[in-house]
Fold:
Amino acid sequence: MAGLEFEMTYRLRVRGPMPTTHGSPVGARSYWEMSEGTLEGTRIKARIAMPGGDWYRPGSDGFGRPDVRVQFITDDDAVILLHYTGLVQMNDAFTKAVETAGTTRFEDHYMRMAMRFDTGAPKYAWLNQHLFVAEGRLTGKDQIEYRIYRVT
Structure:
């Protein structure tokens, strides 16, 4: 039976959004920039190397669908790329926190991601060799925190 092992915390600050692409034949998207962030766990410590981006797709069903790519540099200078997609429930707790620069708890709304890492650094090869999932919450104005788990 598959299990989950806590691996790291991902904290980030976002900037945006740019205006939504209403009328696009592939659906409306808004763009958010991942301007600052860190990955911290017992096996990794890294920071965002340059801004990443989220081509966020708000849905008519009350869920947003992030599509994020971001680049990290570890404290020992390894390059780690991260791509993640998932679902964000834009319920009352989420909306209120966004409007007031407030916080949410992990259980306040459904914010779940499938995380895929990519690196050439031998020390971090384990990132290429496992599946990862995350649960998220809002932690203040334009701030998000994820707990990332390795699927065992």
Observations:
- The mean pLDDT is 96.
